[in-house]
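Dear colleague,

Thank you for sharing your sequence with our group. We've completed the structure prediction you requested, and as agreed, I am returning the results in plain text so they can be pasted directly into your records. Please verify that the sequence below matches your submission; if there's any discrepancy, let me know and we will rerun it promptly.
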Amino acid sequence: MSTIERAVLKGNIAGLVEIRNIYTAEITEVGGDTSELLWDVYMTDHVTDVVLMLHNSTHFYAYDVYQYQAGQWVLIDEVTMNLTGANSADALLNAASIVLVGKAEGIRHLGRKFYGAIAEVNAVANGIASNIAAYAASALLSYVSPVTGIGGGTLVPGTVDKNGGFWPFVGGVVSSFLGTMRRRKPGNGI
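Please find the predicted C-alpha coordinates below.
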Protein backbone atom coordinates (compact mmCIF):
# COMPACT_ATOMS: atom_id res chain seq x y z
CA MET A 1 0.00 0.00 0.00
CA SER A 2 1.27 3.45 -0.90
CA THR A 3 0.94 6.64 1.10
CA ILE A 4 1.53 10.26 0.16
CA GLU A 5 3.96 11.95 2.54
CA ARG A 6 5.93 15.15 2.76
CA ALA A 7 9.07 16.14 4.59
CA VAL A 8 9.66 19.70 5.75
CA LEU A 9 13.40 20.38 5.86
CA LYS A 10 14.34 22.80 8.63
CA GLY A 11 17.50 24.86 8.83
CA ASN A 12 18.87 28.30 9.49
CA ILE A 13 21.39 30.79 8.21
CA ALA A 14 23.81 32.07 10.86
CA GLY A 15 21.38 30.94 13.54
CA LEU A 16 19.09 33.87 12.68
CA VAL A 17 17.17 33.26 9.45
CA GLU A 18 14.94 30.17 9.41
CA ILE A 19 14.87 28.04 6.23
CA ARG A 20 12.09 25.64 5.20
CA ASN A 21 11.76 23.46 2.10
CA ILE A 22 8.95 20.97 1.50
CA TYR A 23 9.43 17.65 -0.32
CA THR A 24 6.50 15.45 -1.35
CA ALA A 25 6.68 11.75 -2.23
CA GLU A 26 4.69 8.58 -2.68
CA ILE A 27 5.98 5.97 -0.25
CA THR A 28 5.58 2.21 -0.73
CA GLU A 29 6.79 0.17 2.25
CA VAL A 30 7.95 -3.34 1.23
CA GLY A 31 10.31 -5.92 2.71
CA GLY A 32 11.29 -3.99 5.82
CA ASP A 33 11.80 -0.69 3.99
CA THR A 34 9.90 1.71 6.22
CA SER A 35 8.88 5.28 5.50
CA GLU A 36 11.48 6.46 8.02
CA LEU A 37 14.28 4.54 6.30
CA LEU A 38 13.32 5.72 2.80
CA TRP A 39 13.05 9.37 3.89
CA ASP A 40 16.41 9.11 5.67
CA VAL A 41 18.17 7.90 2.51
CA TYR A 42 16.45 10.51 0.31
CA MET A 43 16.93 13.51 2.59
CA THR A 44 20.51 12.68 3.56
CA ASP A 45 21.57 12.21 -0.08
CA HIS A 46 19.83 15.37 -1.25
CA VAL A 47 20.88 17.73 1.54
CA THR A 48 24.47 16.43 1.34
CA ASP A 49 24.47 17.49 -2.33
CA VAL A 50 22.94 20.89 -1.53
CA VAL A 51 25.33 21.94 1.25
CA LEU A 52 28.29 21.70 -1.16
CA MET A 53 27.00 24.92 -2.81
CA LEU A 54 26.20 26.89 0.35
CA HIS A 55 28.08 29.11 2.77
CA ASN A 56 29.14 27.48 6.05
CA SER A 57 26.72 29.70 7.99
CA THR A 58 23.89 27.51 6.63
CA HIS A 59 22.87 24.64 8.90
CA PHE A 60 20.16 22.01 8.38
CA TYR A 61 19.13 20.44 11.68
CA ALA A 62 15.91 18.41 11.18
CA TYR A 63 12.98 17.48 9.00
CA ASP A 64 9.36 16.74 9.91
CA VAL A 65 7.49 13.96 8.08
CA TYR A 66 3.76 14.37 7.43
CA GLN A 67 1.30 11.88 5.93
CA TYR A 68 -1.64 12.93 3.75
CA GLN A 69 -4.80 11.56 5.41
CA ALA A 70 -8.33 12.52 4.33
CA GLY A 71 -7.23 15.86 2.87
CA GLN A 72 -5.03 16.82 5.84
CA TRP A 73 -1.28 16.65 6.48
CA VAL A 74 -0.73 14.78 9.77
CA LEU A 75 2.67 14.93 11.53
CA ILE A 76 4.08 11.41 11.97
CA ASP A 77 7.77 11.94 12.76
CA GLU A 78 10.55 14.46 13.40
CA VAL A 79 14.06 13.43 12.41
CA THR A 80 17.21 15.28 13.45
CA MET A 81 20.16 15.81 11.12
CA ASN A 82 23.33 17.86 11.23
CA LEU A 83 24.55 19.16 7.86
CA THR A 84 26.33 22.48 7.34
CA GLY A 85 27.30 24.45 4.24
CA ALA A 86 30.75 23.58 2.91
CA ASN A 87 32.06 26.92 1.62
CA SER A 88 33.82 29.48 3.82
CA ALA A 89 34.18 32.23 1.18
CA ASP A 90 32.05 35.37 1.60
CA ALA A 91 28.31 34.75 1.26
CA LEU A 92 25.82 36.54 -0.94
CA LEU A 93 22.66 38.00 0.58
CA ASN A 94 20.55 35.32 2.27
CA ALA A 95 17.72 35.68 -0.25
CA ALA A 96 19.93 34.99 -3.31
CA SER A 97 19.20 31.34 -4.04
CA ILE A 98 20.08 28.38 -6.18
CA VAL A 99 16.78 27.20 -7.71
CA LEU A 100 15.98 23.56 -8.50
CA VAL A 101 12.76 22.79 -10.41
CA GLY A 102 11.22 19.32 -10.48
CA LYS A 103 8.78 18.73 -13.34
CA ALA A 104 5.87 16.28 -13.40
CA GLU A 105 3.51 15.52 -16.29
CA GLY A 106 0.59 17.87 -16.81
CA ILE A 107 0.15 21.59 -16.58
CA ARG A 108 1.69 23.44 -13.61
CA HIS A 109 2.88 20.34 -11.79
CA LEU A 110 6.17 21.72 -10.57
CA GLY A 111 8.18 21.55 -7.40
CA ARG A 112 10.65 24.35 -6.70
CA LYS A 113 13.40 24.41 -4.11
CA PHE A 114 15.28 27.58 -3.15
CA TYR A 115 18.60 27.30 -1.31
CA GLY A 116 20.00 30.58 -0.04
CA ALA A 117 23.29 31.76 1.49
CA ILE A 118 25.34 30.87 -1.56
CA ALA A 119 29.05 31.59 -1.38
CA GLU A 120 30.06 34.50 -3.65
CA VAL A 121 32.49 32.29 -5.58
CA ASN A 122 29.51 30.17 -6.67
CA ALA A 123 27.80 33.06 -8.47
CA VAL A 124 28.69 35.14 -11.53
CA ALA A 125 26.60 38.28 -12.15
CA ASN A 126 23.02 37.04 -11.53
CA GLY A 127 23.65 33.38 -12.34
CA ILE A 128 25.37 30.32 -10.97
CA ALA A 129 29.08 29.88 -11.67
CA SER A 130 30.35 26.98 -13.75
CA ASN A 131 32.41 25.69 -10.81
CA ILE A 132 29.23 24.44 -9.09
CA ALA A 133 27.39 23.10 -12.14
CA ALA A 134 28.22 19.51 -11.19
CA TYR A 135 27.02 20.08 -7.59
CA ALA A 136 23.80 21.69 -8.81
CA ALA A 137 23.17 18.82 -11.26
CA SER A 138 23.79 16.27 -8.50
CA ALA A 139 21.41 18.12 -6.15
CA LEU A 140 18.73 18.19 -8.86
CA LEU A 141 19.19 14.49 -9.59
CA SER A 142 18.86 13.58 -5.90
CA TYR A 143 15.75 15.82 -5.69
CA VAL A 144 13.79 14.29 -8.60
CA SER A 145 15.02 10.67 -8.56
CA PRO A 146 13.15 7.83 -6.84
CA VAL A 147 14.81 5.90 -4.01
CA THR A 148 14.53 2.11 -3.85
CA GLY A 149 15.35 0.38 -0.58
CA ILE A 150 17.07 -2.96 -0.12
CA GLY A 151 13.72 -4.68 0.53
CA GLY A 152 12.10 -3.17 -2.58
CA GLY A 153 10.29 -0.25 -0.92
CA THR A 154 10.18 2.99 -2.89
CA LEU A 155 10.07 6.73 -2.35
CA VAL A 156 8.95 8.49 -5.53
CA PRO A 157 9.31 12.29 -5.33
CA GLY A 158 6.70 14.51 -6.93
CA THR A 159 3.98 16.99 -6.18
CA VAL A 160 0.37 16.92 -4.98
CA ASP A 161 -2.36 18.90 -6.74
CA LYS A 162 -5.21 20.74 -4.98
CA ASN A 163 -7.42 17.63 -5.23
CA GLY A 164 -4.88 15.40 -3.48
CA GLY A 165 -3.68 13.71 -6.70
CA PHE A 166 -0.01 12.74 -6.74
CA TRP A 167 2.18 13.60 -9.75
CA PRO A 168 5.66 11.97 -9.83
CA PHE A 169 8.57 13.93 -11.22
CA VAL A 170 9.68 12.97 -14.73
CA GLY A 171 12.59 15.42 -14.91
CA GLY A 172 13.80 18.79 -13.79
CA VAL A 173 16.10 21.75 -14.37
CA VAL A 174 18.57 23.87 -12.48
CA SER A 175 17.87 27.53 -13.08
CA SER A 176 20.95 29.22 -14.50
CA PHE A 177 19.75 32.43 -12.83
CA LEU A 178 19.72 33.01 -9.10
CA GLY A 179 16.28 33.09 -7.55
CA THR A 180 14.92 34.78 -4.45
CA MET A 181 13.71 32.84 -1.43
CA ARG A 182 10.10 33.49 -0.54
CA ARG A 183 9.38 35.19 2.73
CA ARG A 184 6.20 34.50 4.63
CA LYS A 185 4.62 35.90 7.71
CA PRO A 186 4.71 33.48 10.66
CA GLY A 187 1.63 31.29 10.56
CA ASN A 188 1.11 31.62 6.77
CA GLY A 189 2.40 28.49 5.09
CA ILE A 190 5.26 26.38 6.31
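Summary note from our side: The two ends are 28 Å apart (CA to CA).

Kind regards,
the structure core
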